[in-house]
């Protein structure tokens, strides 16, 4: 059900920073900062604001104001912030937030252009998340219903908030809503959202869209709440949703070159999701998205100009998704055979000049969610495939083959991981569960068993991560030697499946 926005008036609270064209905390404003009790530490090219425990740091932006090159550290217990942007020509740029948000404020960033005009939110890191506050479910970015102009949101990283990642459907509110919408537009580009249970991205006015965005993890991926919105060249791992039963909104979501999993979902008969998936969604971080608070504040990209997608692509391979798997036969072999089975999908790599599959190599759908691949090679030649899923069995004489997975040489034992580990938080969509698993063998994230996101890490025999209303899945070999779970999630281990 839609959350009542009657308590979400544009903030009138005073900021301890006097309004000026640039709201960076330079020496001229140090006195007002001291009076507020907030420590400020200068760093190269950006300012760090350290908020004391139990305090909330407020910023107020109006016409022409900019908050930029600022790192807000809320690591202390109960520390928080509130950025209120209302007017024309304001900008929130190169801002990173370090620490989990646990202050009693439901909307740390409230943005609108109430009398037309434009606003900009760009290169912002909100990836440490926030909790279910007494004031309401925390949201990374909230665009108020009274927004009538246009807001661009670009290169934003928003993860792990208790409600929405970007909540921008309010401007589409019906006239009979307690807060009728202003019909302002919001366009989100080159951004990443994960593990925001209500929705990662939520829009609701004609002319609003997400372009080159990625969402994954728990909860809804994209939610077109009202009117007609678009997804353009996006990768959605956790479902596409249209309309809302409470307001009976006839929403339409139009898909253009968008890859998705998790299904399509509508809440009223008049709602529609127009278009089909353009393939398997890619696990990637859009170029330029900051992956740390420091990277955002210093205006240095957290990515290397590529993405986290492990697919090796060539000019002839622009369509396939998955991880490149190469099988190269020894130079002294002849007609060496292989066969392997994947839970998921497999596509041949056919680029010329490289290791590539041929017409006599077969990919057979088994009708149970698995495919079996078979072929033969020899004399130093080989075959290659894009594998989107888990390799669950392999039959070949390993002494005759060199195997490369994602560009790294591997053994059959590295690839075929017989055990499953699933951490399931889907029964508690608003609560976080953190886990650490120690194991004796090899482990790999499994998109087939759960979400794959940046909070999940495998390193030196340890798996660590968190779920907020979603599911994380892994395949592993060996035995589990240690385990810790903080939170209500359930754990399922299947050995030798």
Automatic annotation (TrEMBL):
Biased composition (Low complexity): 291-323
Highest taxon of source: Archaea
Annotated region described as Disordered, given as residue ranges: 263-326
InterPro entries: Pectin_lyase_fold/virulence, TAT_signal
Name of the protein: Right handed beta helix region
């Amino acid at each position: 059900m839609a959350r009542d926005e009657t308590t979400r008036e544009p903030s009138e609270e005073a900021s301890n920073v006097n309004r000026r064209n640039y709201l960076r905390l330079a020496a001229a404003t140090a006195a007002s900062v001291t009076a507020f009790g907030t420590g400020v530490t200068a760093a190269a090219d950006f300012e760090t604001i350290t908020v004391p425990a139990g305090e909330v740091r407020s910023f107020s932006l109006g016409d022409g104001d900019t908050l930029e090159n600022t790192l807000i550290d809320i690591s202390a217990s109960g520390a928080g912030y509130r950025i209120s942007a209302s007017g024309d020509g304001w900008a929130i740029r190169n801002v990173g937030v370090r620490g989990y948000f646990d202050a009693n404020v439901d909307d740390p960033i409230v943005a609108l252009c109430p009398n037309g005009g434009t606003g900009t939110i760009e290169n912002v890191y909100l990836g440490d998340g926030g909790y279910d506050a007494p004031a309401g479910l925390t949201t990374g970015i909230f665009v108020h219903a009274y927004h009538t102009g246009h807001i661009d949101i670009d290169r934003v990283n928003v993860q792990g908030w208790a409600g929405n990642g970007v909540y921008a459907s309010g401007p589409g509110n019906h006239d009979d809503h307690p807060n009728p919408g202003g019909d302002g537009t919001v366009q989100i580009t080159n951004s990443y959202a994960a593990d925001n249970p209500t929705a990662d991205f939520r829009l609701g006015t004609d002319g609003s869209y997400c372009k080159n965005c990625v969402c994954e993890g728990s909860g809804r991926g994209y939610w077109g709440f009202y009117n007609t919105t678009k997804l353009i060249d996006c990768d959605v791992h956790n479902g596409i949703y249209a309309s809302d039963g409470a307001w009976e909104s006839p929403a339409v979501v139009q898909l253009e070159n968008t890859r998705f999993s998790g299904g399509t979902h509508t809440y009223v008969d008049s709602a529609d999701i127009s278009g089909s998936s353009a393939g398997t969604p890619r696990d990637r971080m859009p170029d330029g998205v900051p992956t740390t608070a420091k990277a955002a504040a210093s205006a240095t990209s957290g990515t290397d100009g590529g993405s986290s997608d492990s697919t090796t692509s060539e000019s002839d391979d622009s369509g396939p998704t998955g991880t490149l798997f190469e099988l190269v036969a020894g130079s002294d072999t002849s007609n060496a055979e292989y066969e392997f089975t994947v839970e998921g999908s497999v596509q041949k790599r056919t680029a010329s000049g490289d290791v590539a599959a041929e017409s006599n190599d077969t990919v057979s759908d088994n009708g149970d969610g698995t495919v079996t691949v078979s072929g033969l090679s020899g004399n130093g030649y080989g075959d290659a495939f894009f594998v989107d899923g888990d390799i669950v069995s392999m039959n070949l004489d390993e002494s005759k083959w060199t195997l490369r997975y994602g560009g790294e040489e591997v053994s059959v034992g590295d690839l075929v991981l017989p055990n499953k580990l699933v951490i399931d938080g889907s029964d508690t969509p608003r609560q976080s569960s953190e886990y650490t698993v120690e194991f004796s063998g090899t482990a790999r994230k499994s998109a087939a068993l759960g979400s794959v996101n940046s909070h999940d890490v495998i390193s030196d025999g340890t798996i660590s991560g968190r779920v907020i209303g979603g599911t994380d899945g892994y395949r592993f070999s060996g035995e589990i030697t240690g385990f810790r779970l903080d939170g209500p999630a359930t754990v399922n281990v299947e050995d030798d499946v």
